[in-house]
Every structure is written in C-alpha cells, then in structure tokens.
Design a protein that fits this description.
This protein has 346 residues and is an alpha/beta fold. Helix content is 43%, strand content 16%. It folds into three domains: 44 residues, 434 Repressor (Amino-terminal Domain) (Orthogonal Bundle), CATH 1.10.260; 130 residues, 3-Layer(aba) Sandwich (Rossmann fold); 149 residues, Rossmann fold (3-Layer(aba) Sandwich), CATH 3.40.50.2300. The protein is elongated, with a radius of gyration of 25 Å.
Length: 346
C-alpha cells in the first residue's frame, strides 16, 4: 500500500479520524486502550502526520528558522553547525536559509518561514538599520533573537561577542609589541560587528596616543576577496606602509595572506597580522593566524536559550542584550609566538 492517510489509520484501528487526530496531538481524556490501539497501527504502518497541519492545531511546529548572511563564509558555516547541534539537543528542528547579503532574498525567506509556522527566529544578517527585521520583531510572535549582530534601536534581543573589546585587545596586542603604524581592514559600517570592531581599533590607538591615519583604515566587506583587495591597497602605500594590520575578520585575513604570499610579503617578518573570529582554518599549520575568538559556541548556546525561553513564555517582552567576552588567540602571524594556539586573555 502507498502512503497512509489519517483515514486509513482510523479504518485500521476501527475508530474515527477525529480520535486518531487527538491521539497524534496528545489530547487528554482519551481512553488508554483506544490510544494504545491507535499507536500500534501508526507504528505498524509507519504513518507520518503532516507536520504543518499538526502545528496549526497545536501551535507547536518544533521548528526554528535560522537566517544567515552567507554560508560560503567559514564563520557562518561554523555558526550553523553549532546551531544545529544546540537545536537537536533542545528537540528543535532548525531550517537554515542563506541570504547572500541580498535583502530581497531575506524577505522571501522570512515569508516562507512564517508560512511554515516556525516557533522562533535566529537571525545573523541584520544591519544596524534593517526595516525587515524591525517589522518582524514588532510582530511580537514568533520571537526573534539576533546573533553576531544587533539593531541600532533596542528592539530585538541579541547575543554577540564584545566586538569593541575584541578589536581593542587585538590592536593593543600589536601596540604592545612596538607597532605604531597599524592598519585596520574594517567590515561594513552598516553592520554592528563592522562598526564596533572599527571603534575598538580606534580606541586602542587613542589610548596609546597614536594618531588615527585615515589612509590606514580600509573599509571592506568581510569576504575573502575583500581582504585580497585590501592587501593590494596596503602594498601600494610603499614607504607609508604599515608594520601591522588588524583585520576585522579571519576570512578577509585569509585573502590578505594569499595576496601577500603571491607578492613575496612575509607574515609576520615583513608585516604582522591579527584577525577576528578564530575560524577553524586559522589554526592550520601553514596559516597560524593570530586572532580574536568570537566564542561561537557560547554565543549560540545563549541565543538558543533565550529563544526557547521566549517561545515557552510568549508574554516575555524582555529585551536581552548579551555580549560575550572575547579571547586573544596568539599564533604565528603576529610575530610573537614560538608555539601555536597559546590562548591568553581568559
């Protein structure tokens, strides 16, 4: 026989379709003998209830919508992996969507996920001013928690690493090792992580009375190609070239390493480099990128816990804003480590 329907189950169990529905949705006050009989038929036929139809009745789909910026980014692919692990441990099914930085695609995914009756959103795409996400938050339900991003207005709950502190620590580390001409390859200023990491870089320079040279601040896009372009700009500075670079994420730092390698610029002998995020590839022996750990596991765990708390209590209108303390991971690219993966600043 082909795919079984609820009517087939009712016929085989000699009960009504309504009774089968009540058993599936775990309604109280059902005769235990009847319940066991229906469950036995379901087990034998391997009947699979329509998840969407069931969720419309129970208001519980067991699904969480996860919208990320770009799965091609190692950072976001690692975030997605951790979200998957954490959701499964909490008995939720994540649905992953990648917007590729496109607002139209983001809007389509939001509409699709709402149609699937998801119970909550984890979003890692928001700009500081993001009307789509702001409207979604103002709906009130399903609840939204931002990860690695926050809105300019205090609308949505968020969990992120402390970007200002992380960038400050990275830049201060370079200053403490004698560097004064330190470039910053910054991320998009319309994202909280991009603007805050630039702020942390400037804070470290100001504290050490090092003038900010706008020629050494190179705005880019958090992508590998952006780092490659930024390295080309730095190489063109010639006699005004910096001795060290704080790169606002590891993905761009990898692009910089590629360009420098092709043009005979040695890291760290000719120029020191520190990234941000501590993606897995950064620890490889032939890369050994010093970086700031963005504490991805801790960020994800906190975000999922907040979301489930809000799902369980729809009246909870608390605004949660959590910033996780970053860690400096010293490897070879900053020029001061004999041994890789020596983590300081715990």
């Amino acid at each position: 026989m082909g795919k079984f329907t609820i009517k087939d189950i009712a016929r085989l169990a000699n009960v009504s379709s309504a009774t089968v529905s009540r058993v599936i949705n775990d309604y109280p006050y059902i005769n235990e003998k009847t319940k066991k009989k229906v469950l036995k038929v379901i087990s034998k036929t391997d009947y699979q209830p329509n998840a969407l139809a069931r969720s419309l009745v129970t208001k519980k789909s067991g699904m969480i919508g996860v919208i990320v910026w770009d799965l091609a980014s190692p950072f976001f692919s690692e975030i997605v992996r951790e979200i998957g692990i954490e959701c499964r441990e909490k008995n939720y099914q994540p649905i992953f969507c990648s917007t590729e930085g496109n607002d139209k695609i983001q809007a389509e995914y939001i509409k699709l996920l709402l149609q699937k009756n998801i119970e909550g959103f984890i979003i890692a795409t928001a700009h500081l001013h993001d009307p789509q996400i702001e409207r979604l938050v103002l709906r009130g339900y399903p609840p939204v928690v931002l990860i690695d991003r926050r809105l300019q207005t205090e609308l949505a709950s968020y969990v992120t690493v402390d970007n200002i502190e992380g960038a400050y620590i990275a830049t201060k580390h370079l200053i403490d090792h004698g560097h004064k001409r330190i470039a910053c390859v910054s991320g998009p200023e319309n994202s909280s992580s991009g603007s805050e990491r630039l702020e942390g870089y400037k804070k470290a320079l100001a504290e050490s009375n090092i003038p900010i040279d706008q020629n050494l601040i190179i705005p880019e896009n958090f992508l590998w190609a952006g780092g490659y372009r930024a390295a080309e700009v730095i190489l063109s500075l010639k006699e005004k070239r910096p001795t060290a670079i704080f790169c606002s994420n590891d993905f761009m730092a990898l692009g910089m390493l590629e360009f420098f390698g092709k043009h005979g610029i040695r890291v760290p002998q000719d120029i020191a480099l520190v990234g941000f995020d501590d993606i897995s590839i950064s620890s490889l022996y032939f890369i050994q990128l010093s970086t700031i750990s963005s504490r991805k596991i801790d960020v994800v765990k906190n975000a999922i816990n907040i979301l489930i708390k809000k799902i369980s209590n729809p009246d909870d209108d608390t605004h949660y804003g959590i910033k996780i303390k970053p860690k400096l991971v010293i490897r070879n690219s900053c020029g001061c480590a004999k041994y890789p993966s020596n983590i300081v600043n715990d």
